């Protein structure tokens, strides 16, 4: 553990960018938790007299067509966007890690079925599949989560399967088995915890992609219902106004979205350096 | 503009150095001068107005490539712009007609030819009219609106004489022969492309036109562009001035506007209100906004089921809608208000007209209590995603105000192709929708939207025998009796308010200064035949 | 070689079967009733029921699936509701537009990412390395639809350098004769410089938006694999035998490092095909992505089905090609994977 901390400190000092990403992450987390409480305006309240105002001291990011404060909307949207991303990543992890570990551990039919399933999903360009799923299951946030989880599922399966396969005959697994544990118990109680760190890295790497995916879906009109604030849909709303000069409507949500994804991508890299120094690229 | 001039000068300067650029820009410049480039949002899905599911852009293709027996005259509207005149029917393929109580006889132009060179005869007209009343769906419905229902009504007397026998005296029969549906098609050409299963050549006509109209389709790339060229042998009206028309599909309104402002496109049709409001100030462009006749944007409530079977509740909604805010932030002032009149009484035989509602939340709350909903209620508010740029902000504003009187709404965006199916089901409790009737008569609008025949456009499932009696009376009477009937049904519509009128929309068009001759048509599509460039 | 091809094809078959089932299920779940749409305005419930029978939508799901497969075997993907055209024909028409855009984007990405990756590896740990990492990560963090909007705004609207985002060619330039469907290639084949130039200008912004997005995986893989190769024995030997570092890097190290990069291409392609949908929406690009988005918004199920299927088949085929390419570049690779 101490070695780990020391290593983390070393990585951070060697790579200041990772430190920056941790700070950014804290900021987004803060916005997600306290955003609605600290937003200067009600993000849903229209104000006809102040529609389409450029950024100013009163409205840092300006206002949209209905006079809603964009800064407040961007801030409040953090929770929705991160929730979608977090839940889809966790769902993908649960489905993917479990079936992947089982596939790698048991091999045989389990492996074949899980492998086919993952292959079929991977045979689609992922965003396209996500589009299809949300369109088919209905325009709801929960379906964005589901679609994003499904397209990330094969990534988790692959990693979990490979790692479990390696550990199948490892000493600690043998020991657990010999001391009378059933297969399920060995799998869940010993193999799974052992590959957690690697799965964590995988999760932070896919977070960024999950956010992008969710925003992309709502950009083309799938998922989030008005009047809820969400970064992707805000960019889509603003797209109609860019060419008449109201650039702020799309710019701020878009930039925030980019920053969030950027942060998670850097974070994922950083975590990988800390947890798994061998894989450093 | 700047970029274009810059481009031209650099091309000229470099012409000496390289031969090629000079040649290509000349060709380009010439093509540019003789061509009218129209940018528009949605693509046509057919060249056949009788086709199943033919959309509005398809009507435009059909209108410009086909002839009808008659067309409408022209007048100046209040702003001095050309406006079709629904009181004046004028010759197109027919040079004259003889209207009798039980029939009308048309004399056809003798030198008119189809695009393939075959002469246009009365048997083509009969075949086409038979087709319209037989194939079902929209064309058959539209024909029936003018009591044109059976093939036996249509008689080819000789090659150049065509007679329509009336089923009943209907004042909409003659106007209905001038709408886009009764087009004249080349019957021989169609029959050649018909099959046993498809005797009316519906399949073939989707991507081909068998007609003799002022324009021909030269290139048909649905969802990208359609190129029209003038039919130089056209005899059924003055030869159009524009030789080529390119209709290019540009889905994003922002891009359409930019193309126009930069001088890259000549005309943009169906502009969003915001662009219209702003482009009005541009010295480089001409913009024309015409109130769409017999049309309104409304909030409709389903009166057949709870909770909106309650009249007081509907009135509460009517008092809660943020009308002025919608006018300002959604429409940017570019619409005709249909609210805030003195009272809920008809002001004459015109439609649409202002009702007496305005935004008064206190009144709305009182009515909520009287309706027995003082604890509020929950419902959904649906709209067509296809017109989201207006519908969505409008829905959000309505949602916000309804919340203030205790009506909690969830917004339901319905994908375009589903919208009609959903309307047909008549199960949506509350909707935002627009309707416009082609023929500019109040009773025509009411026949579709308020009559107990419960057509798809009666989105509220409103059924009231008294209302039906008044509408039917107005359809077949004239004079004071007619006016009384109209006043009767308008008053009733305002009082019982199954649909809350919000505004009358405008049809907005912007064009370069060198484009003139734009005319407003009831079918709300562009007629290329009157346009002039240069 | 043929054996390799056949066995690879055999492994692709289950994927394709899975794809068929998934696409079928997806579109049957799509909300909306094509029967109501086709029955037209003001249709009676009986009329809708008749249309439903005609379209075969009243049959059981397995029966419909069989009908779907039979149709597919005849190259029939159904008709689009909103454009009224056969889906198969439209996809064939539009595919070259998407393919050209994707390939140009890929080319741009490779041309930037590989040198960047090599540079980062050679200068490992320096500020150049960090900068490369930040730049590529920033690139992959940019939502393509946002990049596209931003580029169009800056280069078309503000700076007026780029042409209007209205499709594949300037409006007044006619398309080259259809040989390959790729405007760049066709215009060159017919010697039409004007069309070529116009097509290139229209391609620039959408291709760059997509390329930026795919820099990161390529650059990272190049860097990683370069590092591995640079640390290997044979490179050390080469260095020790006095070869210039230039020769070592480009002749020895790079040639060996390029193999893993090829495998990454498959993933990058999946990325790009997905990004296509969004970029085409922003730039009004007449490809199959825009077609699918429009169909999706109107709940027009046949094009959605056709699109998803085409994309998946395309992707399977591409992976096949990459596998084969890999085998060609590195004869050591056998089919044991």
Protein model, in words:
Chain A contains 10 helices and no strands. By secondary structure, chain A is mostly helical. Chain A has one domain: Orthogonal Bundle (MetI-like fold). The model of chain A has no long low-confidence stretch (mean pLDDT 84). With 534 residues, chain B is α+β, with helices and mostly antiparallel strands. Chain B is 35% helix and 25% strand. Chain B contains 18 helices and 23 strands. In chain B, the strands form 5 sheets. In chain B, strands 1, 10, 11, 12, 13, 14, 15, 16, 17, 18, 19 and 20 form a 12-stranded mixed beta sheet that branches. In chain B, helix 11 runs antiparallel to helix 13, helix 12 runs antiparallel to helix 14 and helix 17 runs antiparallel to helix 18. Chain B is globular and about 70 Å long. The N terminus of chain B is likely disordered. Chain C has a domain of 191 residues: MetI-like (MetI-like fold, Orthogonal Bundle), CATH 1.10.3720. With 337 residues, chain C is mainly α. In chain C, 76% of the residues lie in helices and 0% in strands. In chain C, helix 10 packs across helix 11. The model of chain C has no long low-confidence stretch (mean pLDDT 81).
The N- to C-terminal Cα distance of chain B equals 17 Å
Q: What's the overall average pLDDT of chain B, rounded?
A: 88
Please give the count of helices of chain C.
Answer: 13
Please name the fourth-level CATH homologous superfamily of the domain at 96-286 in chain C.
MetI-like
Most extensive interface: A-C, 49 and 58 residues
The 3D shape of chain B can be described as globular
Approximately how much beta-strand content do the residues of chain C carry?
A: under 5%
Task: State the end-to-end distance of chain C.
Answer: 16 Å
| Shape designation of chain C | globular
Q: pLDDT below 50 for ≥5 consecutive residues: which ranges of chain B?
A: 1-24
The number of E-state strands of chain B comes to 23
Main sheet overview of chain B: 12 strands, mixed
Residue stretches of chain C low in confidence (pLDDT < 50, at least 5 long) are: none
Can you give the helix content of chain C as a percent range? over 70%
């Amino acid at each position: 553990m101490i070695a780990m901390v020391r290593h983390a400190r070393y990585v951070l000092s060697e790579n200041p960018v990772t430190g920056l990403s941790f700070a950014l992450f804290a900021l987004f987390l803060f916005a997600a938790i306290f955003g609605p409480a600290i937003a200067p305006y009600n993000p849903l309240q229209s104000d006809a007299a102040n529609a389409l105002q450029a950024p100013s001291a009163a409205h840092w990011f300006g206002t949209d067509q209905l006079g809603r404060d964009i800064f407040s909307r961007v801030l409040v949207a953090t929770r929705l966007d991160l929730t979608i991303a977090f839940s889809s990543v966790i769902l993908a992890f649960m489905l993917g890690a479990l079936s992947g570990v089982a596939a790698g551990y048991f091999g045989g039919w389990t492996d074949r079925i899980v492998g086919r399933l993952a292959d079929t999903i991977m045979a689609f360009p992922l965003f396209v599949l996500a589009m299809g799923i949300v369109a088919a299951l209905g325009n709801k946030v929960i379906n964005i989560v589901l679609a994003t989880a499904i397209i990330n599922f094969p990534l988790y399966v692959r990693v979990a399967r490979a790692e479990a396969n390696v550990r199948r005959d490892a000493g600690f697994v043998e020991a657990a088995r010999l001391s009378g544990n059933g297969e399920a118990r060995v799998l869940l109680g010993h193999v799974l915890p052992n590959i957690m760190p690697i799965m964590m890295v995988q999760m932070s790497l896919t977070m960024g992609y999950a956010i992008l995916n969710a925003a992309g879906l709502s950009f083309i009109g799938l998922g989030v219902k008005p009047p809820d604030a969400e970064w992707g849909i805000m960019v889509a709303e603003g797209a109609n106004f860019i060419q008449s000069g109201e650039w702020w409507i799309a710019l701020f949500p878009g930039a925030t979205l980019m920053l969030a994804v950027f942060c998670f991508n850097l974070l994922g890299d950083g975590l990988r350096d800390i947890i798994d120094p061998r894989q450093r690229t | 503009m700047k970029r274009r001039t810059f481009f031209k000068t650099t091309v000229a300067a470099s012409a000496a150095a390289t031969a090629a650029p000079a040649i290509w820009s000349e060709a380009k410049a010439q093509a540019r001068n003789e061509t009218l480039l129209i940018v528009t949002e949605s693509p046509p899905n057919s060249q056949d107005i009788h086709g199943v599911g033919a959309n509005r852009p398809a009507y435009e293709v059909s209108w410009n490539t086909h002839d009808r027996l008659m067309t409408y005259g022209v007048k100046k509207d209040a702003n001095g712009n050309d406006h079709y005149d629904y009181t004046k029917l004028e010759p197109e393929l027919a040079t004259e007609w003889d209207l009798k109580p039980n029939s009308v006889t048309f004399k056809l132009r003798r030198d008119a030819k189809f695009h393939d060179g075959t002469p246009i005869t009365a048997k083509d007209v009969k075949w086409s009219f038979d087709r319209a009343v037989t194939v079902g769906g929209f064309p058959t419905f539209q024909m029936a609106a003018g009591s044109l229902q059976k093939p036996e009504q249509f008689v080819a007397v000789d090659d150049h004489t065509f007679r329509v026998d009336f089923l009943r005296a209907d004042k909409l029969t003659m106007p209905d022969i001038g709408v886009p549906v009764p087009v004249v098609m080349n019957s021989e050409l169609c029959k050649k492309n018909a099959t046993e299963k498809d005797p009316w050549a519906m399949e073939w006509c989707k991507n081909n036109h068998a007609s003799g109209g002022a324009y021909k389709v030269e290139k048909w790339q649905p969802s990208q562009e359609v190129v029209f060229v003038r039919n130089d042998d056209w005899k059924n009206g003055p030869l159009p001035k524009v030789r080529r028309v390119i209709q290019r599909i540009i889905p994003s309104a922002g891009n359409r506007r930019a193309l126009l402002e930069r001088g890259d496109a000549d005309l943009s049709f169906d502009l969003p209100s915001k662009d219209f409001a702003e482009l009005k100030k541009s010295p480089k462009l001409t913009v024309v906004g015409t109130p769409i006749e017999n049309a309104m944007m409304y909030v409709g409530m389903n009166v057949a089921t709870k909770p909106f079977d309650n009249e007081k509740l509907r009135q509460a909604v009517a008092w809660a809608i943020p009308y002025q805010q919608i006018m300002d932030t959604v429409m940017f002032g570019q619409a005709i208000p249909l609210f805030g009149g003195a009272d809920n009484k008809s002001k004459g035989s015109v439609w649409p007209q202002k009702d007496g509602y305005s935004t008064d939340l206190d009144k709305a709350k009182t009515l909520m209590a009287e309706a027995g909903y003082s604890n509020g209620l929950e419902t959904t508010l649906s709209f067509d995603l296809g017109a989201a740029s207006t519908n969505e902000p409008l829905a959000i504003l309505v949602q916000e105000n309804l919340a203030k009187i205790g009506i909690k709404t969830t917004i339901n965006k319905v994908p375009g192709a589903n919208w009609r199916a959903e309307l047909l089901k008549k199960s949506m409790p509350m909707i935002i929708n627009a309707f416009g009737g082609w023929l500019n008569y109040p009773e025509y609008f009411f026949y579709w939207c308020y009559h107990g025949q419960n057509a798809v456009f009666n989105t509220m499932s409103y059924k009231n025998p008294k209302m039906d009696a008044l509408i039917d009376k107005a359809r077949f009477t004239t004079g004071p009796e007619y006016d009384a009937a109209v006043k009767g049904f308008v008053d009733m519509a305002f009082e019982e308010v199954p649909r809350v009128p919000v505004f009358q929309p405008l049809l907005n068009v912007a064009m370069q200064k060198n484009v003139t001759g734009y005319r407003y048509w009831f079918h709300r599509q562009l007629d290329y035949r009157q346009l002039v460039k240069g | 070689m043929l054996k390799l091809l056949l066995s690879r094809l055999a492994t692709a078959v289950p994927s394709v079967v899975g794809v068929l089932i998934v696409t079928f299920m997806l579109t049957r779940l799509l909300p909306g009733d094509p029967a109501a749409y086709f029955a037209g305005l003001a249709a009676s419930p009986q009329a809708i029921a008749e249309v439903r029978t005609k379209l075969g939508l009243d049959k059981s799901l397995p029966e419909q699936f069989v009908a779907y497969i039979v149709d597919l075997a005849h190259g029939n993907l159904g008709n689009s509701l909103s454009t009224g055209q056969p889906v198969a024909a439209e996809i064939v028409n539009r595919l070259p537009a998407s393919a050209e855009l994707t390939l140009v984007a890929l080319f741009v990405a490779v041309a930037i990412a590989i040198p960047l990756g090599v540079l980062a590896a050679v200068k490992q740990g320096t500020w150049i390395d960090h900068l490369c990492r930040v730049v590529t990560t920033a690139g992959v963090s940019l939502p393509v639809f946002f990049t596209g909007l931003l580029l169009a705004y800056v280069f078309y609207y503000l700076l007026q350098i780029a042409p209007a985002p209205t499709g594949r060619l300037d409006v007044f330039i006619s398309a080259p004769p259809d040989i390959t469907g790729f405007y760049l290639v066709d215009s060159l084949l017919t010697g039409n410089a004007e069309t070529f130039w116009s097509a290139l200008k229209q391609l620039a912004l959408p291709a760059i938006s997509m390329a930026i997005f795919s820099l990161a995986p390529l650059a990272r893989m190049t860097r990683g694999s370069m590092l591995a190769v640079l640390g290997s024995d044979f490179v050390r030997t080469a260095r020790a035998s006095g070869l210039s570092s230039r020769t070592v890097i480009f002749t020895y190290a790079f040639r060996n490092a390029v193999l893993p990069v090829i495998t990454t291409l498959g993933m990058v392609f999946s990325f790009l095909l997905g990004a296509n949908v969004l970029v085409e929406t922003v730039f009004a690009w007449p490809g199959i992505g825009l077609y699918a988005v429009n169909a999706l918004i109107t709940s027009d199920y046949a094009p959605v089905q056709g699109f998803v299927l085409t994309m998946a088949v395309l992707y399977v085929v591409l992976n096949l090609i990459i596998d084969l390419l890999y085998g060609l570049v590195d004869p050591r690779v056998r089919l044991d994977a």
